[in-house]
């Protein structure tokens, strides 16, 4: 349930006026979803475990939306020009790969929990979904761990120590939290292979406790990310700018087009000035001809 934590400014979470607000909403929704996920696994320790599954489904759905929003925001930062990814490895392996991998992992976890919920509600007609659910509950956290590792591989060229401390305060809880989910899922699938359980019993106590501790670390990482976003929006942190990246190439391309546009406008202005001058001279000539010409009748009257 990790998410992207980038210090680079090549991101676009919404329209220019609402970009800061959209990024606040993104970070706030992540913290909210982490807290909801923690509450869902805590509810699994109670007698009414079905309500816990519903809460977990809601949390995973919000996590999926947040990760997709991260992906769209970073693609919008480069005008969705995917060919620029080959010139920026960090954009490919961090800003693009991390939210994509984590969104897929969240989707697999969502399907796994949904299959268990359907098995619990509908009965034995969904018996075949249980095996797929256990595999998805392992595959999802593995993708979260892979995303966490990619998320930690950010290059700092000229960032100050404050930025790096805040980044690590987000990376380390995400990495440890996703690792706990993976360990819990592997232990759970090994335990279920030696016993015959169905429905809610497929989520063992071991997996539940590992998930509780993992969700707690993700809440800590989400709060750290919220603080980092707040400080970046207030201008207290110097954002990272990597030379030679896709965002810089896009800026150079835009700046290269501006002189051409200005030159074209300069070429058009003399032509327009000449046409306006010719039109003015023509109008002045017609006016002078009208004022200097005297009718023949007035001339005869003047002579008499």
TrEMBL record:
Bias type Low complexity, positions: 275-284
Membrane-spanning parts: 24-42, 54-76, 96-118, 170-189, 209-230
Source organism superkingdom: Eukaryota
Keywords: Membrane, Transmembrane, Transmembrane helix
Ranges of biased composition (kind: Polar residues): 285-295
Chain positions covered by the region annotation Disordered: 265-304
Keyword Transmembrane among record annotations: yes
Record's protein name: Uncharacterized protein
UniProt organism field: Trapa incisa
